[in-house]
Amino acid sequence: MRLRNRAFPLLYPVLIITIIISCCRPAYPSEPIPSITADAAILMDAGTGQVLFEKNAGLKKPPASTTKIMTALLALEGGDLQETVTVSPHAASVGEASLELTAGEMLTLQALLYGALLESGNDACVALAEHIGGTEGNFVLLMNQKAKLIGADSTSFKNTNGLPAADHYTTANDLATITRYAFHNQVFKQIIGTRNIIIESSMGTRHLSNTNRLLWSYYGADGVKTGTTVEAGCCLVASAARDGRKLISVVLNSDDRWTDSIKLLDYGFERFESLRVIDQGAVVGSAMVEEGITDEVMAVASDELDVVVPRDEEVALEKVVSIERQITAPVVKGQPIGRITAKINGEVVGSVELVSDRDVDRMPNYRLFWVKRNFLPI
């Protein structure tokens, strides 16, 4: 039932406004699309999730030790950094790249994370998994569940460290997606950007050095993880930040993972730039309120929205604003009442919720009764 006279009829429950802006910029010397040796690769903007380059990005490949990104993420989410972990005989027996842990040795969970991510300790990963999940098998189940939850749908983990195993695979796109999610964890970001550290255990100290050479050689490099096996070849998930932007590159089975990664990162920083679509708190429209002590609330952006666009191309930036035309009191400040979506050349590249800018209490019952009696439907 309509309780107030309106200046216009409520024909639709949602108001949709489309604004198309042609973004023109002076031409810059165009960076050539990078030619890389990797079998599969991707370049993703970490802020927006936009894919800036891809080569066989959906091809399922063995990931080698880049697997440890997910292992570390789950250990961070499921454990306490200062918990003491006792290394089991099984964990101590894991070979290949290792910290040479011994059965019964005790370390903090944090120390094992540094060992897993900096020096790619396979034994450290198993020790973490057993501590968090009881068994490595239980922990691997959690890894696969987490992958699906964050959108890495083409990933199958069979162990925690990336040692060769049947049906242990992922894609360049999934690795970038997992890494982008992991960047929300501040401790993860701190660890992967560490070049050298000394960790302690009940057996003494260990000097660890990060296997990611880009941390020493590429301006802005701040992660992430190497991976190497005969089956997977040379792999690298790399990240770098410059001028408020962060990029994630992934190369799988590369003849030169360092050069490939540098080419991708350079391409992303030099060819693309960030464009602000809307500021956090900006008023986008309004929604009418029924049964409230005020008639209207403003729809404001819940967060800033940026997109990445090529520097030297004209693009059509489309803003689609969807707002509920009518909401019923009570309304809470910050309550979702719509969404603004950005499209570039017709492709959705990002969106943020629109929320109410204020609280609106419901009218007392006696006032509602009076309104209904005197302002019945027009």
From TrEMBL:
Active site per UniProt: 65 (acyl-ester intermediate), 68 (proton acceptor), 120
Q: Which domain of life is it from?
A: Bacteria
Reactions catalysed, as given in the entry: Preferential cleavage: (Ac)2-L-Lys-D-Ala-|-D-Ala. Also transpeptidation of peptidyl-alanyl moieties that are N-acyl substituents of D-alanine
> Broadest EC class?
hydrolase
Q: Which GO terms describe its biological process?
A: cell wall organization; peptidoglycan biosynthetic process; proteolysis; regulation of cell shape
Q: Which pathway is this protein engaged in?
A: Cell wall biogenesis; peptidoglycan biosynthesis
What are its E.C. numbers?
3.4.16.4
For this protein, the record's SUPFAM superfamilies field holds: beta-lactamase/transpeptidase-like (SSF56601), Penicillin-binding protein associated domain (SSF69189)
TM stretches of this protein: 7-28
| Residue span(s) of domain Peptidase S11 D-Ala-D-Ala carboxypeptidase A C-terminal | 272-362
Fetch the SMART domains from UniProt.
PBP5_C
Name the UniProt record assigns to this protein: serine-type D-Ala-D-Ala carboxypeptidase
> What species is this protein from?
Pelotomaculum schinkii
Q: Which gene encodes it?
A: dacB_1
